[in-house]
Amino acid sequence: MADRGENEFPVFACSEALSGESGSTGLLLQQNMWEVVPLLGYGIVEQQGTQNPEEDETTCRTLTTEDLISEELLLPQPEETQQTALIPESVEATAGTALSNFRPAVQQVQIDRTQLADYETLVRNFYAIDANTMAGSDQLSVEKLLGMDMTLPQEGDGPQILIYHTHSQEAFADSVPGDVNTGIVGVGECLTKILTEQYGYRVLHNTGQYDVETRDNAYSRALPAVEQILAENPSIQVIIDLHRDEVAEETKLVTDIQGRPTARFMFFNGLSRTRKTGDIDYLANENQEANLAFSFQMQLKAAEYYPGLTRRIYLKGYRYNMHLRPRTLLVELGAQNNTVEEAINACDPLAHILDMVLKGE
Fold first, then answer.
1. 3-state DSSP call for residue 283?
2. Of 342, 97, 344, 293, nearest in space to 200 by CA
3. pLDDT above 90 as % of the chain
4. Across 321-349, average pLDDT
């Protein structure tokens, strides 16, 4: 079992924000807002009777499309809210601290929830459903997705959020070979720092390595380690399995946030169901509805506050250890051809989005 200590590796310092004034996006949606749809990967070796079937190929290949969120979903916004990263004075004291020059954005667009009651409209604008699985209106109902309370109780002691990496060896274009602190683990350390120092959460960052010799069965190796962490820290209510994606080399998952090149990211859910076998009983997930609600509420906040930052939520047929807590996220942040700086820059808006959902804002 891997060491789960928070300080197994040196702290990976967050980069300072780039200089330059914030660009105003208003109601304009970036052309590639929902452009990237995973093609391959997350293929699983089915092991009947085991508790956690594994990925064969553990990365998502992506394809650029012209899939944009429909402008018909956007409600008119007051003119004063159509500026990027202008925040109320009451928030100014706690936001944009010494970690970077980032300032949490105000709402840029408002999406009409009533139109999302239509299943086809909801899926077309918010989801990419893998061909190996299926999701109907019983699962993807905006009433259910928005009706679940994802707020995080603040009372008690001990860590509230666990960040870990099933694939700790995932690196970026300019990562130092062999140095996980310049890869996804380092990005996880930066996200931990922001959530702790800027937003006041108690965060445990597990830097255990489950994919060093091979990526095969990494989820099986990670599961008992994460279960032990949760047993030792029952106060943990939020789990983030932080990854980076793999895309075609000509695809670049980057956008501009406040003048900073920022890696785009994607929320991912497992449905424990395939077209071939139907529901997978030995991969039961009693938290699946809550998992789906959590990622959707994150996606909706991202779309309204940071248009163009996220890709559509990707749904696949297996479980990916998402059964451990109702508030579990699997996040694909950037890809192999993003820079470390771009990945680090994505931590600020990701933390802000998470904070809004956990506070019910």
1. helix
2. 97
3. 67
4. 98
